[in-house]
Amino acid sequence: MIQNLGKQQSILSQYLAEMRDVEVQNDSLRFRQNMERAGEVFAYEISKTLSWTEKEVVTSLGTASCHVLEQQPVIATILRAGLPLHQGILRFFDKAENAFVSAFRKHHKNGRFDIQVEYTSSPSVDDKVLILSDPMLATGSSMFLAYKELVRKGTPRHIHFVSVVASVQGIEYLKKHMLADNYTIWVGAIDDELTAQAYIVPGLGDAGDLAFGSKL
Questions:
Q1: Which of 67, 132, 66, 63 is nearest to 99 (CA)?
Q2: What are the helix (H) ranges across 1-73?
Q3: Which residues pair with 79 in a beta bridge?
Q4: What is the pLDDT of residues 156-204, one digit of tens each?
Q5: Helix, coil or strand: residue 158
Q6: Is position 58 within any domain?
Q7: With 0-12 CB in 10 A as exposed, 13-18 as middle and 19+ as buried, what is 142?
Q8: Does 11 reside within a domain?
Q9: pLDDT digits (tens, 9 = 90+) for 77-115
Q10: 64 lies in a domain?
Q11: Closest of 198, 203, 209 to residue 139, by C-alpha
Q12: Taking the model in full, what pTM does it have?
């Protein structure tokens, strides 16, 4: 159910090290590129779990027996932080349908916050593989609310949750609230601590701000 690619020694470790590094973070272009490349790694690994079908392809010299995806997935992300990660996944699944969920933290004076969803754009996900990405899986509530919005469009065959960095609490939240067991959680690292403001420690900071600049 949980695939932690950080336990393997791969180029993803290099990308993640640069995304965490406060000096490299000063280059927003580099940060976005590393997030996209992480998405490509996740997409490649997820592709191994999908269904494939055999197809005869005519070449200039004959006929080749090849394997192609039986069905394209639906790729979804949470705006705005998820866009670079989404783009990396889309680069591998370039024929996939796309979905977007606008969710944000509404902070209260007591320091607490709620997650609110403003907008959802999605095709039908009924009997399709859904890949839902968000760079950081902190409390898990944003990812779960986005999932709930998307399944209004149908019942997925399987759900792949993708995050570059997750917290233990975020993973446990998803496991507790997911009623079905047809899902897999893909992460690049699992960190132990959350701050009072629900930021992952050591984490990497605010992925949206690092990719696109600070917001008011």
A1: 132
A2: 11-20, 28-47
A3: 102
A4: 999 999 999 999 999 999 999 998 889 999 999 999 999 878 889 999 9
A5: strand
A6: no
A7: buried
A8: yes
A9: 998 899 999 999 999 999 999 999 987 766 556 666 666
A10: no
A11: 198
A12: 0.93
